[in-house]
Design a protein that fits this description.
Largest sheet: 5 strands, mixed
Number of strands: 10
Keywords: Coiled coil
CATH topology of the largest domain: Jelly Rolls
Organism: Caligus rogercresseyi
InterPro entries: DnaJ_domain, DnaJ_domain_CS, J_dom_sf, Plant_DnaJ_domain
Number of domains: 2
Strand content: 15-25%
Shape: globular
Pfam families: DnaJ
CATH class of the largest domain: Mainly Beta
Number of helices: 13
Protein name: Chaperone protein dnaJ 15
Length: about 375
């Protein structure tokens, strides 16, 4: 669908004015140029420029993220169903009431994907370029609770040295009341480097960034793609699990939690956890399952052409079963690890609260004793 400026608002490559085979550097360069051109600060009172800036940010969020770009590219041309994967409401949709949009989306079962608000992107850029007066808290191993307004974000700094990177760490965000949010890591220029959407797990929603000292794969939720397709092959399923090629350097990094709730605020807790602190048994299981996943991908790829040519149902079924079991096991281990983090964080928070209460009580007792001593001294002086 073409926008007011003649550009197809559902073609991410057209929005960024790059060919479909553009390199990451070409995508980044074009994004910088267009973001500067349509930046709201350079186009005050220009609603069209602001809307296009949001489109540019949305396109860059998808094309700069290897896993999202991979999914988008797999879906074919924008005229097919790729745009549905990253659906966003049109101007006509937004003329309806918020409740009406939410009701329609839920009724038809449409996945609700939100672009990152332009004010969050502007703030990230300002913080990174040291022109923002906003105070940014440093993330620690203690769980930091946060309440976010609609379409707003909380920023944090992550400090990591080479030793932290060598040992590995996990950034874990979680909403105990199943609020929808994004977890974003920015680069030094305040541009999106990694963006993770929260996923529903039991009675909560969570998102995590893994920087581990061994082979890992990007955790990719392909539900919106495979919905209604029960016959997705082993090749396609494993195609959504890519080797994690993302890395960061020692230093200070900016992250943000963005509220995606359509009508209300969000409660999201976040922390940074050293991988060494995780139960060794769980760490060993993750290492093993990640290697098995990599081996299975290589094995399937090596015989894919033969299997597709011979159409041997038995071999296909065997591979499908093995793949399903492996992915199911991987998901369980990851969830157990994150549950382990949540439980230990809750216990630590409880211990910290008790410690604070004891410290406060001791301070009160000391204050009372001091007051009593002072009173006794005054009484003696009177006598």
């Amino acid at each position: 669908m073409a926008g007011d400026n003649g550009i197809d608002s559902e073609d991410m490559y057209a929005i960024l004015q790059v060919p479909r085979k553009a390199s990451p550097d070409e995508i980044k360069t074009s994004y910088k140029k267009l973001a500067l051109q349509y930046h709201p600060d350079k186009n005050p009172d220009n609603e069209e420029a602001r809307e296009h800036f949001t489109l540019i940010a949305r396109a860059y969020e998808i094309l700069s993220d290897p896993e999202k770009k991979h999914i988008y590219d797999l879906q074919g041309t924008p005229d097919e169903n790729a745009a549905a994967l990253f659906h966003e409401f049109s101007k006509e949709d937004m003329k309806m009431t918020a409740m009406g949009v939410l009701f329609i989306a839920r009724t038809v079962g449409a996945p609700m994907h939100f672009a990152i608000p332009s004010k969050v992107l502007i703030e990230a850029n300002d913080i990174s370029n040291h022109v923002s007066e906003r105070k940014v808290e440093t993330l620690s191993s203690a769980e930091t609770p946060g309440i976010l307004k609609t379409n707003e974000g909380n920023f944090f700094y992550v400090h990591c040295g080479q030793e932290d990177l060598d040992k590995g760490f996990i950034i874990h965000a979680q909403s105990p009341i199943r609020d929808s949010f994004k977890l974003i890591l920015f680069n030094d220029q305040g541009e999106i480097y990694i963006s993770k959407d929260s996923q529903k797990v039991s009675s909560k929603t969570r998102a995590a960034l893994f920087f581990l000292p061994h082979l890992t794969h990007e955790v990719m939720d392909a539900k919106c793609i495979v919905e209604g397709n029960d016959k997705l092959s082993s090749f396609d399923k494993l195609g959504f699990y890519q080797r994690n090629g993302l890395s960061i350097q020692p230093g200070k990094h900016l992250i943000c939690i963005v509220n995606e709730n359509f009508l209300m605020g969000a409660t999201v807790n976040i922390s940074m956890r050293a991988y060494d602190d995780i139960d060794k048994n769980l760490r060993d299981k993750i290492t093993k399952v990640e290697k098995e996943l990599d081996d299975k991908k290589k094995e399937i790829q090596s015989v894919k052409e033969i299997m597709m040519k011979e159409k041997d149902d038995k071999i296909l079924k065997d591979f499908s079963l093995e793949t399903d079991l492996l992915l199911c096991l991987r998901k369980k281990i990851i969830n157990k690890l994150l549950n382990n983090i949540s439980t230990e964080k809750s216990n630590q928070s409880y211990k910290d609260e008790l410690k604070n209460m004891e410290t406060s009580q001791q301070a009160d007792e000391a204050s009372t004793q001091s007051t009593n001593s002072s009173q006794e001294s005054n009484d003696m002086n009177i006598l």
